[in-house]
Amino acid sequence: MHKFEGIAVSPGVAVGEALVMGNEGFRIPRRFVTRDSVEYELERLDKAIKDASAEIARSRDAVLKEMGEKYAAIFEAHLQMLQDARFRSDIEEMIAQRHYSPEYAVSRKVRECAQIFQKVQSRNLGDIFDIEKQLLRKLLGRRREELSKLRSPVLILAHNLTPSETAHLDRRFVRGFATEVGGPGSHTAIVAAGMAIPAVVGTGIFLTEVSGGDLVIIDGDKGLVILRPDEETIAHYRHEAKEHRHLAARLEMLRDLPAETSDGVRIELLGNIEFPYEVDDCVARGADGVGLYRTEFLYLGQEQEPDEEDHFQAYLRVIQTMGDRPVTIRTFDLGADKVPHLPEPEDERNPALGLRSIRLSLRNLPMFRKQLRAILRASVQGDVRIMFPLISTLLELRQAKMILTDVMEDLTEHKIPLNAKVPVGMMVEVPSVVMMIDHFVEEVDFLSIGTNDLIQYTLAVDRNNKEVVWLYNASEPAVLKLIELTIRSAARKAVPVNLCGQMSGSPTYTMLLLGMGLRQLGVPPSVIPEIKKICRSVTIDQCEEVARHALTLEHARDVTSYLRGELKKRVPELGP
Amino acid sequence: MDQRKQTRTVTVANHAGLHARAALLIAKLAREHDVALAVVKDSQGAEASSMIQMLSLGAKQGDEIVLEASGPRAEEALNALERLFAEKFYEEDEDAESRG
To answer: Which residues of A are catalytic?
Structure first.
């Protein structure tokens, strides 16, 4: 049994079969074969080795002719590895004695070799994985299953997960994520939270020790990934998983009840979504609206820029599903590096501080206007609101609004209907905005505090850098003060304000946020039941007392333990 | 014990160490001289005919290793191998290049 510690980014526990994402996301279909089929499976292995060897020999000869011995040598080396007698006999033994499938046996043997190579820091580590890939390709042939065609529940283990990889997962069968790198704000964290499955990131290297099909455990509460768990551990976690399911069922019963404090104050719980289909989750969980409709998916993993119709259809889907409930659409919030059709800026050494989001939109007016046109056209279909991300100065906000007005005039001239009074707001995520918040509240219809980035910029910490991620903490008094300043200023001008970072979906902070004056929270739909339960279990007076005390504390960890204590007091089943 | 087994101690001199390409050359020499060759580093042995075993040694530049050859042409083989090691497996001297 081997336990790896990482950062817990999505709660819950999962016990199940691992799907190890290799370079091409190969999936090992099964672990065992029947005794009767051993002969047949050994033949399959033999054929796979022969076929792979023949192919490598052909490549070697071709390269030898064209580029010389030096370059052909690596193919020869691959061939030698493939033909290695011990390598082969160990795999055959696993099939014959332990009834492993050839795919699983190859994978196990390769992992074993890889571990040794890694330990001695061999520069040929990549080659052994290449061999694995080639053998698996021969063994699996056309039956190579893609991630979009999963057939049974799996826990996905990878070095990292990119948006385009997760975009095509068959979500019905994914039960958890674990990645070697990443931090609390990483894409894996967001997707896992959205799917309400456990996730652990930043564990460091562990993929060499696990094969597809292995039984693994992901503990998203403690931040652990457990390989080859012993019987006792498996039993413990299966029990935990059951407890979680029971709690979820109990919370499910709150679905049609309002998120109202026990002294009758209504709290609006809005869903944060990344993809249009998530709006169905919002409806299923009884969300009061969509507080953050992230639109980046339209650009990710695509070769070309989406056209106006692509935008419009995506917005329509969500708006129509929400009916008369509000939908806040946020304009493009990525860097140029994620958008294939834009040239990469030369100086982007600090992408978080670079040409991204509203800055990129203002630099790329045709792209920006396209998105605004689509949002405006959609604005007559429901209660639509527009939000600008990463605003850092008043000038930026005014420029963005000017472009919007211009696009509105353009549409009106062409007699295209739109809501001329569409509410326009912005994210509060750069500290400079909070310093000028009294000015900003005069120019927006609403504000949304984006704590994910606000924490980064305030504490000057990269949430994906595991050396400093311990500094990234929503409980930092400085962050709380910025949130408080924003809420107070907005209240003076009766400007609605919500909070839409991961903080608002965390039960630990609900009482604090309500106590500071928030009456709207933007959360992943999966946590709506929990947050609702907390709202229904407290009074505003209690929350205000909690906030008052929390804001006197000097250390983040004191804040966190105080808040957890209060949560446990009022809502024991959700407490730590 | 095979009385025709002979040993020689050599040093890994090339920058990349005993990687795949070097292992290939060693294996080739052994085959050409028709000897069974074992490569030993710190009492861990590898058969020259097994690429994986050779790579598992993880022999790096500066490591001392012992070559054990058995067969009628053992001595000849070891001489050739000694030369191969001394010539750094005919690899470009990466250190010199970077200094240039």
So the answer is: 187, 500
Please give the Cα distance from A199 to A175 (Å, whole number).
Answer: 9
Angle of the A556-570 helix axis to the A507-515 helix axis, nearest 10: 90
Domain chopping of chain B, boundaries? 5-87
One domain, residues A130 and A162: no
Q: Give the CATH H-level superfamily of domain B5-87.
A: HPr-like (3.30.1340.10)
Beta bridge mates, A425: A387, A446
Model-level pTM?
A: 0.64
* CA pair distance A126, A118, nearest whole angstrom: 10
ipTM higher than the 0.95 cut = no
What span, in angstroms and rounded, lies between the C-alpha atoms of A153 and A226? 17
Nearest to B52 among A73, A74, A81 (CB): A81
Q: Is A57 on the interface with B (CB under 8 A)?
A: no
Instruction: Tell me, yes or no, whether A81 and A109 share the same domain.
Output: yes
B24/A77 CB distance under 8 A = yes
Q: Tell me the pLDDT band of A140, cut-offs 50, 70 and 90.
A: confident
- Would you state the pLDDT for residue A470? 86
> Domain boundary at A222, A248, A274, which?
A248
Task: Compute the nearest-CA separation of A237 from chain B (Å).
Answer: 37
Q: Domain for residue A152, yes or no? A: yes
Out of A73, A85, A87, the one facing B21 most closely (by C-beta) is A73
Give the minimum alpha-carbon distance from B27 to chain A in angstroms, rounded to a whole number: 10
Residue A119 contacts B where some CB pair is shorter than 8 Å: yes
Q: How many domains does chain A have?
A: 2
